[in-house]
Design brief:
Strand content: 5-15%
Order of helices and strands: EEHHHEHEHEHEH
CATH topology of the largest domain: Ribosomal Protein L4, Chain: A
Largest sheet: 6 strands, mixed
Number of strands: 6
Structural class: alpha/beta
Number of helices: 7
Distance between the termini: 17 Å
């Protein structure tokens, strides 16, 4: 598979050959769904917690005598059915993480890249370099490339001016190649890779 390489100004900068084993797969939604679920589960803090009847601060004395009142039999006001009582079967602090094989995670990334290529939402740029950290100039460049909702993946080191300028633009995410992940690829409309990022991906999946 061959794609045209663009500059940030929207000009042609040659062509690049993409590996079919990375960008030419038939995307499988089940694998992508498993990967997104795994990522989102790992992001969950799991700090939700409610107090049980053993933890609420309230008297444990019997509310009223057992017989003779005509009312139901009750003991502690800490019981879940009373206002101010403990919560029955409430959430507890726990980890939501679960296992996903490393090979499945690697396969999911290739399917996500292939999905963008198949949908013609993959753009290759020669490099991410900005002379000045000016957001206005970068917005003009992105408009020329048709980017209003995109994930930009650069090489191992990102240009500091480019990163600063892009950080103020809504719906635009910039990551080094080490940070590439399935969830961020799928949540944005277009995927923009530099030539260095393409080379790193092909080296990674050799």
């Amino acid at each position: 598979m061959e794609l045209n390489v663009k500059t940030l100004e929207g000009k042609d900068a040659g062509k690049v050959s993409l590996s079919d084993e990375i960008f030419g797969l038939d995307p499988r939604e089940d694998i992508l769904a498993r990967m997104v679920r795994w990522q989102l589960a790992n992001k969950r803090q799991g700090t939700h917690k409610t107090k049980t009847r053993a933890e609420v601060s309230r008297t444990g004395a019997k509310m009223y005598k057992q017989k003779g009142t005509g009312r139901a039999r009750h003991h502690s006001a800490r019981a879940p059915q009373f206002r101010g009582g403990g919560k029955a079967h409430g959430p507890v602090v726990r980890s939501h993480a679960h296992d996903l094989p490393k090979k499945v995670r690697a396969l999911a990334l290739r399917h996500a890249l292939s999905a963008k290529a198949k949908a013609e939402q993959l753009i290759i740029v020669d490099q991410f370099v900005a002379a000045d950290a000016k957001t206005k100039l970068l917005v003009g460049s992105f408009e020329a490339l048709g980017l209003n909702n995109a994930l930009l993946i650069g090489g191992a080191e990102l240009d500091s001016n480019f990163k600063l300028a892009a950080s103020n633009i809504p719906n635009i995410d910039v990551l080094p190649i080490q940070g590439i992940n399935v969830y961020d690829i799928l949540r944005r409309g277009k995927l923009v890779l530099t030539k260095a990022a393409v080379e790193a991906l092909e080296e990674r999946f050799k």
